[in-house]
Design a protein that fits this description.
The chain has 158 residues and is mostly helical. Helices cover 80% and strands 3% of the residues. It has four helices and two strands; from the N terminus they run ββαααα. It has helices spanning 19-58, 61-80, 84-126, 131-153, and strands spanning 6-7, 10-11. It has a two-stranded antiparallel sheet with strand order 1-2. A hairpin with a 2-residue loop joins strand 1 and strand 2. The longest helix is centred in the middle third of the chain and has 43 residues, at 84-126.
């Protein structure tokens, strides 16, 4: 003859050993969730802080792109020497390079998000500092910006 102990309306499939066991499991579960919540909150705060730092790094990219695009247009016009077809070909090539670089950046950013989240998650599980992840993030973003500008905006005449 078995008694089953109810917890939050759900019946356990094991024989009841009394209320003490229920409370022990609840305390253990609450303690575990408390630890997880603590690291999750810490991780979220650190990720938010990193996001703000990265946003600052990205702020000047549109200005730099605009400046470079104006330079490309001026070079295409100058090298066209009045040849409309050359100018169109030059600007079309620059537009294609830009679109390719933009798509590449989009994929890199998707990788970045997953990579940084995984790094933070692993550090949180171990109770370690997030500094290594933050440095990795800043380094990756700087490289992505540099590569993006180099790949799509450097003028090459032909």
């Amino acid at each position: 003859f078995f008694f089953f102990q109810a917890e939050d309306g759900i019946r356990d499939a094991q024989e009841s050993r009394g209320l003490g066991d229920v409370y022990k499991r609840q305390v253990s579960t609450q303690s575990t969730w408390g630890i997880i919540r603590k690291y999750k909150v810490s991780m979220e705060k650190e990720l938010e802080h990193l996001s703000k730092e990265i946003a600052k790094q990205l702020e000047d990219v549109p200005k730099r792109m605009h400046s470079e695009l104006v330079g490309i247009e001026e070079n295409c016009f100058k090298n066209a020497s009045g040849d409309e077809n050359y100018f169109v070909k030059c600007m079309t090539k620059a537009g294609k390079k830009f679109k390719h670089a933009e798509r590449s950046l989009e994929f890199k950013m998707a990788f970045f998000q997953k990579n940084i989240y995984d790094c933070f998650h692993q550090k949180a599980e171990k109770g370690e500092s997030f500094e290594e992840c933050k440095e990795l993030g800043k380094t990756q973003i700087n490289r992505y910006i540099t590569d993006f500008l180099k790949d799509c905006l450097l003028y090459t005449s032909d």
